[in-house]
Description:
By secondary structure, the chain is an alpha/beta fold. It has helices at 39-51, 66-69, 99-115, 145-149, 161-168, 173-176, and strands spanning 2-15, 18-23, 26-32, 55-56, 62-64, 72-77, 120-122, 129-144. The strands form two sheets. Strands 1, 2, 3, 6, 7 and 8 form a six-stranded mixed β-sheet that branches. A two-stranded antiparallel ribbon has the order 4-5. Mean pLDDT is 90; it is low at 160-179.
Amino acid sequence: MRAVIQRVKEASVAVEGNIVGAIGEGLLVLAGMAPDDTDEILDLMAQKIVNLRIFEDEAGKMNRSLLEMGGALLVVSQFTLFADCRKGRRPSFVGAAPPQLASALFDRFVDKLRELGPRVETGVFQAMMDVRLCNWGPVTIVLDSADLLRPRRSSPHRNGTKELAGTLGDRNPEREEER
């Protein structure tokens, strides 16, 4: 599953000129489903989204979650998040779940979000939709369940500068003097 999460002051989605979902402050979630998505992945993504601390606290720090600030969700299905643009100029969408499976996964994902407490509005699956939003910040986060399931790699910044300096090789100005 892939999701693009945008913190919004307001957002809405319309089909054929009729608004089918709208929220005030909260998150707009564009959600793409993969053929191998499981209930465990849907749970993980739902939990991550509602608990991301991307809303400001009294001190102005992004330290509050959607649940803590009482915001709502507008969730819109978007298979194009699985576009593969590596070859040619026309994106391939073979990485996206087929429509029947994607619809079932999307519905289960929305149900899981609702179980967690926030008000959830949606678009219409497979419809041509007009999505409007006022991005607040802006704050935009991209989540991929494949990344969430992978172990974290250690960063050279966490391990100190000694290892990092060794990777600079010939570009290290201090080593120029040694030659």
